[in-house]
């Protein structure tokens, strides 16, 4: 959409379009309500809020270039070429609109009167929340030939809006902010974390150029993300370590405009005061659907859905419409082309989506988000819109590309046969369990607690460590399941091969919640599943194999925060009666330096594995809730996680070698 496409009233962006809903005071008291967390994830979210504002301008047709810079002191600078924030007096607040945007919660062009028709932000709180949580912020608005500037500290203005220079015909916004160390656990930004989001935004908004630069000493680097192919290139990026079974990316888009009843806010004068009211009006509402997809020889499905650039990780109406239409289109074509026999059962959605990488991106006015994390699209009309768009275009592609269609249908029918084999394997497992006197695995040392919220299970590497863990545990709340050797790499096999593994079946049975389509989180028997492996390369490999299993077949366990990794110590250091356990070489050096100053004899024990610890030591260092260290495994970015598992555990060797070369400096070597 360009400026010329908009009506004069839609082009306006001034103080009258800035609607005020409430004050800013709650943000510093309860930051988690506005950015989710004050951990590293929340820290990086501040950048996304500011960049989202620039992208909203791009969606409205006013911005093409966004430059994000990590400055030397870990502050952030975001510069774009949008319209510049309005600086005229706000009709209700009687201060410059720029000040209202930056210091009042829920103030912005996302609320009422057409400031933005499509907006990526969920709540319209971005700029003011970032301001409230920053120890320093400076904003430059370039418009009308002048550069207007205002500064703030912790959400309070420290200067008035004033002219600091001339900009000629140029327009744009520059925001510099430094996160407040009183709020955040850590204020050091990660280039890699920011890179994932900047790249994603560039993929989802074709034509936008986003640059990311790191100016910190010793970390200097810069990258530019610009994709004229948009989500087509996103699919190519996700599949670069996979092998496509057809060369062409299937891509289609559709735009729908219909007259609907919507709420509209307007200002009116009541007794000399400006009052905001709401009314129902009928006007044309536009929705857009854009989909790109490609099948690979992988067994895993990668489907990413977005609504107004927000990753709808819980799905929603658009994803439901897409999946239903895809299943119907492939089955209808298969019957028509006689690639599916009439006597055969219809292919399921899981059969058809095996190995498929798909990006579904919709843009709509007034999105309704719901679900636990507010990332599930609830607009009912988007289901039928995406359904119709998908069915028509997938059917057309298959009919116009019979050779590729045959390859795709063969892939789907192989998946259907494998599904049936997996079903028989699951049925056999259930029958065996029913015939046995105890349905839980024989190796499992269960806990006596029946409340899953109070129960935890340790998946322990090796029988020796498993024995120590069983002897040292709290039998009331801690269950132990020892593993013998490394489990199967499920990235390279289908479900029926996975279910043939006794070790994996033991884990599935112990957890109680099933796998894949039959997964039921309500039946989970333990709310902490703790991977306890050696602190060496083999231990790391075992953790990765188990995480691959959880990611591919039990992803809700990761998404729900149920998966943890134990952190066993590397050393036991004894000096007289003082015994310390250290978990890194740096910590070990500090303890040795402290003991050396005492001039006493120091005894050092290096743990090569968990099996070298007796029950008391394993409890004290790794299992005791009062003293242990657990790392919770989280899933902040499905797209990146999917790529990493494909790279590390897939069939292609060159991408794995490249990953190791690029990340070797992070490795801890046992030499």
Assembly level: single chain
SSE class: alpha+beta
First-residue to last-residue Cα separation: 59 Å
> In CATH, what is the homologous superfamily of the largest domain?
Histidine kinase-like ATPase, C-terminal domain
- The CATH architecture designation of the largest domain is 2-Layer Sandwich
Tally of DSSP β-strands: 24
The CATH topology annotation of the largest domain reads as Heat Shock Protein 90
Main sheet properties: 9 strands, mixed
Helical fraction? 25-40%
CATH class of the largest domain: Alpha Beta
Q: Can you count the helices?
A: 21
Unreliably modeled segments: 110-114, 433-438
Shape: globular
Beta-strand proportion: 15-25%
Rg on CA atoms, Å: 28 Å
Domain count: the total is 4
Mean model confidence by pLDDT = 85
């Amino acid at each position: 959409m360009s400026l010329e496409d908009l009506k004069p009233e839609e082009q306006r962006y001034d103080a009258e379009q800035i609607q005020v809903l409430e004050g800013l005071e709650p943000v510093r008291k309860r930051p988690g309500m506005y950015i989710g967390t004050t951990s590293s994830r929340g820290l990086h979210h501040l950048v996304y809020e500011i960049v989202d504002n620039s992208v909203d301008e791009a969606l409205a047709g006013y911005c093409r270039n966004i430059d994000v810079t990590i400055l030397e002191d870990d502050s952030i600078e975001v510069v774009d070429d949008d319209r510049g924030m309005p600086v005229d007096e706000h009709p209700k607040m009687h201060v410059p609109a720029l000040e209202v945007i930056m210091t009042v919660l829920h103030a912005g062009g996302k609320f009422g009167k057409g400031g933005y028709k499509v907006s990526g932000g969920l709540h319209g709180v971005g700029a003011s929340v970032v301001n409230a949580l920053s120890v320093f912020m400076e904003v430059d608005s370039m418009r009308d030939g002048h550069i207007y500037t205002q500064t703030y500290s912790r959400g309070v203005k420290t200067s008035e809006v004033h002219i600091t220079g001339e900009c000629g015909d140029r327009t744009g916004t520059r925001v510099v902010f430094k996160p407040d160390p009183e709020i955040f656990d850590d204020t050091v930004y990660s280039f890699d974390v920011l890179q994932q989001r900047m790249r994603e935004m560039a993929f989802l908004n074709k034509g936008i150029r986003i640059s990311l630069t790191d100016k910190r000493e010793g970390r200097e680097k810069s990258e530019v993300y610009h994709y004229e192919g948009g989500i087509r290139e996103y699919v190519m990026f996700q599949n670069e370590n996979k092998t496509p079974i057809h060369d062409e990316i299937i891509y289609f888009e559709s735009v729908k405009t219909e007259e609907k009843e919507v709420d509209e806010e307007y200002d009116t004068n009541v007794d000399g005061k400006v009052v905001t009211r709401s009314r129902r009006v009928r006007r044309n509402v536009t929705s857009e659907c854009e989909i790109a997809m490609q099948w690979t020889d992988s067994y895993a499905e990668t489907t990413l859905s977005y609504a107004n650039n927000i990753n709808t990780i819980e799905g929603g109406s658009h994803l439901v419409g897409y999946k239903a239409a895809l299943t119907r289109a492939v089955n209808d074509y298969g019957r028509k082309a006689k690639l599916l026999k009439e006597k055969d059962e219809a292919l399921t959605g899981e059969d058809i989506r095996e190995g498929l990488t798909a990006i579904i991106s919709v843009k709509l006015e007034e999105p309704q988000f719901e679900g636990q994390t507010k990332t599930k699209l609830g607009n009912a009309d988007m289901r039928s819109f995406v359904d119709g768009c998908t069915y028509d275009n997938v059917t057309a592609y298959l009919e116009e590309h019979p050779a590729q269609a045959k390859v795709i249908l063969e892939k789907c029918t192989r998946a259907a046969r494998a599904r049936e084999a997996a079903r028989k394997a699951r049925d056999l497992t259930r029958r065996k369990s029913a015939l046995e006197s105890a349905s839980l695995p024989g190796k499992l040392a269960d806990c006596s607690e029946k409340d899953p919220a109070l129960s935890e299970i340790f998946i322990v590497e090796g029988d020796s460590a498993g024995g120590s863990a069983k002897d040292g545990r709290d039998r009331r709340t801690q269950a132990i399941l020892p593993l013998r050797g490394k489990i199967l790499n499920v990235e390279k096999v289908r479900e029926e091969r996975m279910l043939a593994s006794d070790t994996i079946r033991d884990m599935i049975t112990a957890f109680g919640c099933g796998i894949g389509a039959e997964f039921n989180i309500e039946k989970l028997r333990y709310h902490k599943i703790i991977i306890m492996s050696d602190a060496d390369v083999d231990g790391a490999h075992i953790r990765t194999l188990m995480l691959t299993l959880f990611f591919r077949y039990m992803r809700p366990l990761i998404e729900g925060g149920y998966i943890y990794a134990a952190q066993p110590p590397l050393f036991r250091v004894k000096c007289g009666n003082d015994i310390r356990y250290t978990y890194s070489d740096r910590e070990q050096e500090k303890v040795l330096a402290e003991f050396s100053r005492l001039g006493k004899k120091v005894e050092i024990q290096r743990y090569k594995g968990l099996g070298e610890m007796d029950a008391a030591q394993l409890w004290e260092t790794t299992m005791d809730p009062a003293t242990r260290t657990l790392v919770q495994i989280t899933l902040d970015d499905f797209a990146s996680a999917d790529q990493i598992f494909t790279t590390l555990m897939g069939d292609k060797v060159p991408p794995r070698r490249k990953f190791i070369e690029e990340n070797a400096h992070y490795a801890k070597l046992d030499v």
